[in-house]
Amino acid sequence: MEPFTVQVPESVLSDLADRLSRTRWSRPWDRPGWEDGVDQSYLRDLVAWWQDGFSWRAREAELNRYDHFRAAVRGTVLHFVVVRARRPKGRMPLLLCHGWPSTFYELLPLADRLSQVDVVIPSLPGYGFSDPLDGFRSANRIPALYAGLMTEVLGYSRFGIHGGDIGAMVANRLALERPDLVAGVHVTMPAEPYLEPGTGLTEDEQAFLRDRRISQERGTAYAHLQRTRPATPAHALADSPAGLAAWIVEKWRDWSDCDGRIERRFTKDQLLTTVMLYWVTNTIGTSFRIYRDWALASEDTPQAWPDDDTLIGGVAGAPLPPGRRIEVPAAVALFHVRQPREWAERAYANLQRWSPMPSGGHFAAMEEPDLLADDISEFFSAVER
């Protein structure tokens, strides 16, 4: 375990500035706005700010206010942030897990608000400053890597875990696989339950699944590409910073609770800091590996690899194994997608907290950090009693 400082070489920033200055814009779309993808006028404004107003060195200084480390965990080097409790009282530590297209940066507001406990925020393998995993289907190793980070590297014997998006999938799997280590699991995306043939669904569950199929048709072309042909967009996005910004920022607008006005929720600097963490590390392509490995976003469609026992269960692409439920105390905070509680109860044997939130979206840790931090704190305080 070695201390780590975020410090991008000047040559990388100079190359970025050159590429931004030579951005080749597409011909104007025949239907302006966001309906067909990223609005070009907004993207032009964002790139102009990136060139003339955004200071990466200032953002580096902000990131480096936190204690960063890198450590080899079972053969893979992970980057992680540790925020120690201000007044250590023997409270259970928390592991916070980010998703896509996000980074550890999104979760830093939670760490600032959970100051009564130790907080650990790793970067997913292949994201940011964490090394990628080697080998096809290697993403199945992520829960075990996180367990190793907490126990073998940091020395915790038991911990709570929170996750959103892919981070929720990791959290759910780790809770399923290692209930001896995980005292409780808090997520914004419930695990996918296994349904026995002929299982009767409530009206609310049927409506939820219908709506999910519709939303997948409208908004998950990116996921289909990332899980079936990930190398193709990786080549393009690794070469064009404007293209990378378009690919990421579209999701931050579509999935957040911003009413179509992205800067109602995020500043340009926040958006570009996220984009930069992918750009300066050249990790957009390796971030797609989880989609390839887990066949994400195919809940109600035929699996890309049917009957493949290497597909991890309980994530969005595949249900929990038959007869299995997550046994540890569980909590779900609902922001972006509103599953019925009975759907989640099929996956969790001990669902203790169910919190439909009044506002916030997919990036809840940055959109509504107070709401989310309070929910996490109250749940784990109850678990510890």
From TrEMBL:
Pfam families documented for this protein: EHN (PF06441)
Q: Which residues cross the membrane?
A: none
Q: Using the record for this protein, list the coiled-coil segments as residue ranges, or answer none.
A: none
GO BP annotations of the record are: epoxide metabolic process
InterPro entries on file? AB_hydrolase_fold, Epox_hydrolase-like, Epoxide_hydro_N, Epoxide_hydrolase
- What Gene Ontology molecular function terms does this protein carry? epoxide hydrolase activity
The name of this protein is Pimeloyl-ACP methyl ester carboxylesterase
Record the organism.
Microlunatus parietis
